Amino acid sequence: MTGRQKDRPWLMRTYAGHSTAEASNELYRRNLEKGQTGLSVAFDLPTQTGYDADHVLARGEVGRVGVPIAHLGDMRRLFQDIPLERMNTSMTINATAMWLLALYQVVAEEQGLGEEGLTALQGTTQNDIVKEYLSRGTHVFPPVPSLRLTTDMITYTVNHLPKWNPINICSYHLQEAGATPVQEIAYAMSTAIAVLDAVFASGQVPEERRGDVVARISFFVNAGVRFVEEMCKMRAFGRIWDTVTRERYGIENAKQRRFRYGVQVNSLGLTEAQPENNVQRIVLEMLAVTLSKDARARAVQLPAWNEALGLPRPWDQQWSLRIQQVLAHESDLLEYEDIFDGSHVIEAKVEELVALATAEIEHIQELGGAMAAVESGYLKSELVSSHAERRARIESGEEKIVGVNVYETTETSPLTADLGTAIMTVDPANEARVVAALHDWRVARDEARAQEALTALRSAAAGTDNLMPATLDCARAGVTTGEWSWALRDVFGEFRAPTGVSGAPVAVAAEEGSPMAEVRRKVAETAKELGGGRLRLLVGKPGLDGHSNGAEQIAVRARDAGFEVVYQGIRLTPEQIVSAAVAEDVHCVGLSILSGSHAALVPDVLERLRGAGVDDIPVVVGGIIPSADAKALIEAGVAAVFTPKDFGITGIIGRIVDEIRLANKLEKLEV
Prior knowledge:
This protein is α/β, with parallel strands linked by helices. The protein is globular, with a radius of gyration of 25 Å.
């Protein structure tokens, strides 16, 4: 021992929620008993995108990747017997962040917290809409009104919930969408600048309270497996934030300028192949955000080893929590000052990242700022390009992933010997129960009061009033998530973000003798045999899953292989996908679903294709699909199923050509 007092550990969280509010409440209380020190609520996709459970787009998604919260009654049950004044609760919610915070506040009031007690509430709402446009896809409203919602929430919390973090500028999903460390820093900082500029321009915060606003801005960051570079990234983040807040906004108090961040380490970097290797990946990624005291995360949540296979079980989440606890309580990490101070290697890397990220921030400002760079498609196109380059490095073997493209031989794993029990499954009947409970809620509430609150919300949205008071009234009146969102859609409209596919450059060259050249030859030959023109591939994302990275990479590679690609972005109904397939006379339909709703949505697409008389079009499916589900999809008529283990995109495109030839009774072409 050094004799000095150990630092206090970071907040330890587990990102969790599933099925129903009651089931999630039980899980939270169990995790808190195991030593978890904060809550991190995962909401299902309908809740995140502003739909009630009985909306057509919610089908197959209810309670699947998080907890469904449709109204105040659900929020009450979610936090039953959990004293909110003693919690630090992170809520991963963006487009509907104001609504969920209002429900949380009203539950706190019902627990007995008066106006003074509410000032003790601690936690975070993610509330970063820019990264939704770029990578995660749970946006609802256009950029300008979305920024207004964010501004209103920030100004409300600074005045009424002073310990709450009203926004978590989130670069996590940017990295998963392909961002380099420089892009991750630059895009997150540009978002923070856009938000702070809007808050200060709103006139809702007096000059002398600017520091209070800056002090409540937090960040949510990804940590990849290149942990030295990732740790340097965090030090660079802190330096740039200190400079921006001091020079752009005049914040003199160093404590208010401190870079405050939480982290979830990289989930989409986890592998389906040899999934036990994910444990050491998670540990290395956690070290990136804990080793350096001066750039240490304030809160950490770790994925589970089996997330590339499906939903983790409580035991899997416990394992991830124990990883944090061993580091914090058994190692000597918290006994020392920053162990990297004075390292010329670290300092040089940090300076490089600061210089490159600062230059990119300045470029984005020249384009008109983060919002303008979203609307023009610049940011999305850059991310799609970076991701395509990384995928190409993996496929060529330049970037090695153990168990995937190197050291692929393996012993049989006892962890996955029975895949049926190696992950948690959500009861398909759960959705009907949630829908029935929603209808009961609507019948039992004071309908006149709910409609009056919605009318007041629309009126406030059409004017300039802060929207938080009207939202709180809606929460108290029993309004539902979908009703709150539709009231604002009526005023603000909806937004479809740029896909970035058309502007992405060629990532894999078709050099003579290369796999890409052979696939291009197959595409051209097949098109010729089918009567000229080009092969047409429809890439569709049914339901509410906004993880579009895989779909975008398939679309880009198919385009480069000579396909004409029809890709309309995220959030489509099976009906819309089939209509597009018929209208565009496509040769193949490719469906991408990572949320687990494939069992409900894929058979619907197949049935509608049969109904339209085009059941000879092969349908292929990609996503996080357990082997038993993949077998069921094949039996239902799907031509091929691709999962994360199928990392070679060029090979996938070749398989798609094979399925088109098979469906059209053409002889197989050998490559």
